[in-house]
Amino acid sequence: KEGKSIFLITHKIKEIQAVADRCTVIRRGNVIGTVEMGSVSDQELADMMVGRSVSFKTEKEAANPTTDALVIKNLVVKDSRGINAVNGLDLTVRHGEVVGIAGVDGNGQTELVKAITGLTKVDSGSIKLHNKDITNQRPRKITEQSVGHVPEDRHRDGLVLEMTVAENIALQTYYKPPMSKYGFLDYNQINSHARKLMEEFDVRGAGEWVSAASLSGGNQQKAIIAREIDRNPDLLIVSQPTRGLDVGAIEYIHKRLIQARDEGKAVLVISFELDEILNVSDRIAVIHDGQIQGIVRPESTTKQELGILMVGGNINE
């Protein structure tokens, strides 16, 4: 309104719709087209960005959950200030379902995931995996019990940026055959496996030998997701799974999460994006002040109800 020119670069369609007058779509370095925002829909923009028809809603059959995979009882975890970030939390995730955790940032989500995966100390309560107590076990011991983890902070907890993409993809398996033999790394196997996953998950970069730091944030995220899903874990914990990804990659990752569920895996998804939680979850656990404020089903709730629970309200009053 002050007569300035604004040049906005984003893959978030809602941001474009909110502020842009015109939008030029580029794909793989080429201009696909320029459109006036008043004459184009979200679906048309998404299709231009990806080069095919994109679905914003993942098609899935009803879940068929079976036995308990993860059972958390009365969990208490302190934050860096010594204050209870997780405060007597109970949660169960079963095989064959996706449980989504929704909540305002800073209500214990980060500490909860770190406690499950062994990255922070549990003050009290218990975490059981397949009826075995894994409370305060070391991270490798937990992952070796068939737990996959896509961390919230991909730079701090998900990657070693100075190492190659191939080495990062091998981080969870490098010490076992076929990635190593007699204590020596087999780089032919490590590199070929990385090339396969980079193609499957569309990780774009100069090759598997470049450093992880040279990839864009979205491609770093896809490399981590590829590594964890490829391990075929019984319990897959995914924090902010599509942060930094375009609509096409989001669609693909959501399908892979549902595929894991359909194969009988237990999937726990933590996201600040309510559309994402509503799209992939079979049950939604809303966290507030370190406790589960309520558990609802996506087909029978709304963003408004989730919002009430997220700020500590009660939707049954």
What does this 3D model show about the protein?
There is one protein chain. This protein is α/β, with parallel strands linked by helices. The protein is 31% helix and 25% strand. The chain contains eleven helices and 14 strands. The protein has helices spanning 13-19, 42-50, 109-116, 139-143, 154-158, 165-169, 187-200, 217-230, 247-262, 274-280, 303-310; strands at 22-27, 30-36, 68-78, 84-94, 97-102, 124-129, 132-133, 147-150, 180-181, 184-185, 235-239, 266-270, 283-288, 291-296. The strands form four sheets. The chain has a six-stranded mixed beta sheet with strand order 8-11-12-5-13-14, with helices on both faces. The protein has a four-stranded antiparallel beta sheet with strand order 4-3-6-7, with helices on one face. Strands 1-2 form a two-stranded antiparallel sheet. The longest helix has 16 residues, at 247-262. The model has no long low-confidence stretch (mean pLDDT 94).
